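ok here's Alpha/beta fold hydrolase:
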Amino acid sequence: MRIRGALAGLAALLAVTAAATPATAEPANVEPAPPGVNDWSCQPSEEHPTPVVLVHGLGGSAPTNWAYMGPKLVSEGYCVYALTYGQPPLVPPITGGFSPMEESAPELAEFVDEVLAATGAEQVDLVGHSEGTVMPQYYLKFLGGADKVQRYVAITPLYDGTTLHSTSELLDRLAEEIPVVGEIPDELCGSCRQFFKDSDFMKKLNADGAAVPGIEYTTIMTKYDQLVTPYTSGHLDGATNIVLQDVCPNDFSEHVAVAFNPNVARLVLNALDPAHAQPVRC
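and the structure:
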């Protein structure tokens, strides 16, 4: 089944629907979000005491990237929050992640503080996809975020960057998955060059090792990742490293589809609550 086009259309529809829904959240920078996500009255339960913050990838947003995963986590009893970050002028409102990552990280820092204030929790768990596995590392390492995060579940991570050869190639491949990205010129993507292997940003981020001490990392990679090349860039020393096809050999999900994948959702849930992990029913 070819799902990429359907996912892009679904994501765009959900973005429009969410944007038209009046927000009732307390913080000033309330974001449109999937159903159940960004409920600022949510109080963490005894079973799930740590709120979850979802961090989208390049070209994604809170309502599009997390249209499936967000409600799934809510249905499992978590307080779930998602922001849209990195939106320079002229970028379409349903896309984010285009600002330089050191400019986006303070947005995440502010959002996490709002979640902690609303829920009374001491820490959050992060679930990131693509850029959402890289930008938060800057927050953890340089903006004091390490003490505020317990677990970090990284979907299609790229701790060692990607070997794609140019910003244009990165945007072209992303546009195949999210058509609206094709409208964004190279010069508006301040984060794009930062993803490349051996970029100055990656060198700074990994100067003392990619992993941040004290954080419980789980990485989820796919062999069919066409944006993170090689996909093994997502391997992190000291983490629980999972290749989707080692769990479900017949799962051919690529970079975008994994965010809408029930097998990946179960892996995420197991990482967030390892004491009650359940088998993945491929």
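+1. The beta strands are 52-55, 80-83, 124-129, 149-155, 216-221, 240-243.
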